[in-house]
From TrEMBL:
Name of the molecule in the record: HECT-type E3 ubiquitin transferase
Enzyme Commission (EC) number: 2.3.2.26
PROSITE patterns the record matches: HECT
Location of the HECT domain: 1-142
Native species: Alectura lathami (Australian brush turkey)
Gene label: Herc4
Catalytic activity: S-ubiquitinyl-[E2 ubiquitin-conjugating enzyme]-L-cysteine + [acceptor protein]-L-lysine = [E2 ubiquitin-conjugating enzyme]-L-cysteine + N(6)-ubiquitinyl-[acceptor protein]-L-lysine
Top-level EC class as recorded in UniProt: transferase
Length: 142
């Protein structure tokens, strides 16, 4: 029985996916050659592939741009007050909501800009907050 289980596990986890994995690996290596990875230490490669782990949310606030709002507007002040009170996981979820990814860009938040825009709704009380991930824009009704 042990031999059967070992052979079955090997088949499911290795043999059955060998061809699709080889095809994937060949395509992946065409776009991201492994030879260039040797110049990175493992921790550096992780930062290159996944982005930095340290999130400085104050930089995000400083880099934010506004359309039909001013940084001094009470809604914007309230937004940032509430944002900074959120737990780390919720802040990452917000980043995913605005940009489509909860990972920081490789270069960090220093070069990441997102926009908070008033969508100029006729009745803002009947509107929801939404986002355009392509343009990193948060539509925040008044």
């Amino acid at each position: 029985r042990n031999e059967f289980v070992d052979l079955y596990v090997n088949y499911v986890l290795n043999e059955s996916i060998r061809k699709p994995f080889e095809d994937f690996m060949r395509g992946f290596l065409r776009g991201c050659p492994a030879e260039s990875w040797t110049m990175f230490l493992p921790a550096e490669l992780q930062v290159v592939l996944l982005g930095p782990k340290n999130y400085n949310w104050n930089v995000l606030e400083k880099r934010a741009r506004y359309r039909h709002y001013e940084a001094s507007h009470q809604i914007i002040k309230d937004f940032w007050t509430m944002f900074h009170k959120l737990p780390e996981e919720k802040k990452k979820m917000f980043l995913a909501f605005v940009s489509g990814s909860d990972q920081l860009p490789v270069y960090g938040l220093e070069y990441f800009t997102f926009v908070i825009e008033d969508p100029k709704c006729e009745n803002p009380d009947n509107s929801y907050t939404s986002a355009s991930t392509c343009f990193c824009t948060l539509f925040l009704p008044r």
